[in-house]
Amino acid sequence: MKPEIRDMVEEIKRMKNEKNAVIVAHNYQVDEVQELADVVGDSFKLSQYCASTDADIVVFCGVHFMAESAKILSPEKTVLLPEIDAGCPMADMATVDALIEEKRKYPNAAVVCYINTSAAVKAECDICCTSSNAVRVIRSIPNDEVLFVPDQNLGSFVAGQVPDKKIHLWSGYCITHHRVSREDVEKAKSLHPDALVLAHPECRKEVLVRADFVGSTAQIIEYAKNSSHDKFLIATEMGILYKLKKDNPDKTFYLLTPGLVCPNMKKTSVESVYNALKYNRYEINLDKEVAERARRALEAMLAV
Ligand code: CIZ
Ligand code: SF4
């Protein structure tokens, strides 16, 4: 670690105590930011942690929709997103206007949104889900028809697991996971034939059918820890390797392709966390009515 970074880390710790703040980091953040954080996890675990802590300020190292979810569940706290431009292109693929129009086409469908959506889109939905609980959430719905936004890949994965429901898919996708191809998996497997493939459901079906395990970041971390195998090909964003390697020093992890990098997740640095705490930036503020309606979708998920 460079001396100036070390100084910043010290100063971050001091400001954190002084301001009664916590730092949370997503599994896809750069190693130095994960190291700095009080808690590392998926967006949902982090939001729940934010709601349960008695800190006044939460510095959310992740992307915009995640900080919004934390704010929805902890309206009384100050939630800071250190890099204001850290968005999620997949979340941006579902807009409120387009969703309202699509809902008109399927009046009998329950509207389910992946957590990777804006608060305004969540406010238009009946229930939210994460990649950990999407199958469970959709099975719990009484309707035979579902409109699922915005990830076509997660939606189609769930549709395969819940064949008794008609699932209408949105056309969104994650630019990072969607570009992994069947050829990438085959090439990686031929290089490491004894490795298990662990893939995120945001990958395309042609990838998922070739995987040994499909799950969210939290589920991939859990699977790798409990597996008796010692080599893994990882088909999700590279930031997850930090925790996988830390938890399993005797196991080997290979990123399935070098392209598995989310540029938005990589925007946050130690310096951005330092500036966030120093200048109280960038504060997430939500329209009260939107936040209240979005909260209902999140709470419906919690009740499942
Ligand atoms: O919910 C999350 O944090 C996302 C976007 C992915 C995952 O699998 O953890
Ligand atoms: Fe969005 Fe994909 Fe980046 Fe996750 S990895 S934040 S889904 S662009």
Architecture overview:
By secondary structure, the chain is an alpha/beta fold. It folds into 3 domains: 3-87 and 265-286, Rossmann fold (3-Layer(aba) Sandwich), CATH 3.40.50; 90-173, Rossmann fold; 176-255, Rossmann fold (3-Layer(aba) Sandwich), CATH 3.40.50.10800. The protein is built from 16 helices and 12 strands. It has helices at 3-19, 31-36, 43-52, 64-73, 89-92, 96-105, 119-122, 134-140, 152-161, 175-178, 182-191, 205-208, 217-226, 240-247, 270-279, 288-302; strands at residues 21-26, 39-41, 57-61, 78-80, 110-114, 127-129, 145-149, 166-169, 196-199, 213-214, 231-235, 252-255. Strands 2-1-3-4 form a 4-stranded parallel β-sheet, sandwiched between helices. A 4-stranded parallel β-sheet has the order 6-5-7-8, with helices on both faces. Strand 11 (231-235), helix 14 (240-247) and strand 12 form a beta-alpha-beta unit. The N and C termini lie far apart (44 Å). The relative contact order is 0.16. It binds (~{Z})-2-methylbut-2-enedioic acid (CIZ) and iron/sulfur cluster.
Brief summary:
By secondary structure, this protein is α/β, with parallel strands linked by helices. The protein has 16 helices and twelve strands. It starts with a helix and ends with a helix.
Net shape: globular
CATH class category label of the largest domain: Alpha Beta
Strand content: 15-25%
Mean pLDDT: 97
Q: Calculate the terminal CA-CA distance, rounded to whole Å.
A: 44 Å
Structure ligands: (~{Z})-2-methylbut-2-enedioic acid, iron/sulfur cluster
Total strand count, please?
12
Instruction: Figure out the total of helices.
Output: 16
Structural class: alpha/beta
- CATH homologous superfamily title of the largest domain: NadA-like
**CATH-assigned fold name of the largest domain:** Rossmann fold
- Main sheet attributes: strand count, strand direction, barrel closure: 4 strands, parallel
Strand order, largest beta sheet: 2-1-3-4
Number of domains: 3
Helix amount, in percent?
40-55%
Query: What ranges have pLDDT less than 50 throughout 5 or more consecutive residues?
Result: none
